């Protein structure tokens, strides 16, 4: 079972979003059958089997084993992943495009960057899995508390300058065997308990200041040396990096 799987097919996304089927997917973190799941979900065995067939058809559950019980065969299934992410590819006509309106301090542009990240990593993972290779990626997840909005703005400016210097130092368009990579840096307020904001209130304006989404290459990049970097998603069918891509056991 995978830890996370990306759903990019519209029909599979619809199946996963169905409330009953979503409950079945969660229950099938451990192997189960229509018979064992019927009582917990409050449906007949026949109805559960109908939903399981749909999930299996879309690759969301897989057969673990078949057991003979008298004249019947019990099919034991398991979810293909512990959790799922629906890719914007499942909604191609309305998928966000960060190239349309780049704005480093726009939360909506940051959402568009995040959607592209899900789409591209999902595609690369599919290729890497098919090739039985690991995907070469790197990520940092941290939290920082600023004393003031001014400090946050200063941090964003310094971060942009530092990133520009690093990209300018390592970006090489002529190296034989080199590989392009997508590079994204994001900063946003930490999420706490949601609070209602009265209509007309300016309470949300402070939280929106200093939001930073730094991409690279052309209109989606930052100014300075990185604007010419042209870093894009890894090329090739698997997105793995030659010697750094190791076979999965």
Topology overview:
Blueprint: E1 2-7, H1 10-17, H2 19-27, H3 34-41, H4 45-57, E2 61-69, E3 72-79, E4 81-86, H5 107-130, H6 149-170, E5 185-187, H7 203-208, E6 212-214
Helix pairs in contact: 2-4, 3-4
Biased composition (Low complexity): 232-249
Protein name: Transcriptional regulator, ArsR family
Region (Disordered): 210-249
Structure described in brief:
The chain is an alpha+beta fold and 249 residues long.
What report would you give on this structure?
It is a single chain. Helices cover 36% and strands 14% of the residues. It is of the alpha+beta class. It has 2 domains: 2-85, Arc Repressor Mutant, subunit A; 96-191 and 206-240, no CATH class. The strands form 3 sheets. The protein has a two-stranded parallel sheet. A hairpin with a 2-residue loop joins strand 2 (61-69) and strand 3. The chain is elongated. The model is unreliable at 198-249 (pLDDT under 50).
Total beta strand runs: 6
Q: Mean pLDDT, as a whole number?
A: 80
How far apart are the first and last residues' alpha carbons, in Å? 14 Å
Cα-atom radius of gyration: 23 Å
Low-confidence stretches: 198-249
Compute the number of helices.
7
How many domains? The number is: 2
Largest sheet: 2 strands, parallel
Shape: elongated
Trace the largest sheet across and list its strands: 1-4
Task: Give the SSE order as H and E letters.
Answer: EHHHHEEEHHEHE
Structural class: alpha+beta
Give the % helix. Answer: 25-40%
Report the β-strand fraction as a percent range: 5-15%
């Amino acid at each position: 079972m995978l830890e996370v799987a990306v759903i990019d097919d519209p029909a599979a996304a619809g199946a996963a979003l169905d409330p009953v089927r979503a409950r079945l997917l969660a229950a099938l973190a451990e192997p189960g059958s229509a018979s064992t799941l019927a009582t917990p979900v409050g449906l007949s065995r026949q109805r559960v089997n109908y939903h399981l067939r749909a999930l299996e058809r879309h690759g969301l559950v897989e057969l673990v084993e078949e057991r003979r019980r008298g004249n019947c065969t019990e099919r034991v299934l398991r979810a293909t992943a512990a959790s799922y992410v629906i890719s914007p590819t499942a909604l191609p006509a309305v998928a966000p495009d960060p190239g349309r309106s780049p704005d480093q301090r726009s939360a909506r542009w940051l959402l568009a960057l995040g959607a592209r990240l899900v789409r591209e990593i999902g595609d690369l993972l599919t290729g890497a899995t098919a090739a039985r290779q690991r995907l070469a990626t790197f990520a940092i997840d941290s939290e920082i508390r600023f004393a003031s909005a001014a400090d946050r703005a200063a941090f964003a400016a310094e971060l942009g300058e530092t990133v520009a210097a690093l990209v300018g130092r390592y970006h090489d368009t002529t190296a034989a065997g080199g590989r392009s990579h997508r590079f994204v840096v994001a900063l946003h307020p930490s999420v706490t308990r949601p609070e209602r904001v009265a209509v007309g209130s300016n309470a949300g304006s402070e939280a929106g200041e200093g939001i930073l989404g730094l991409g690279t290459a052309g209109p989606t990049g930052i100014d300075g040396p990185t604007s010419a970097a042209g870093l894009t998603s890894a090329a090739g069918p698997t997105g793995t990096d030659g010697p750094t891509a190791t076979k999965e056991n």
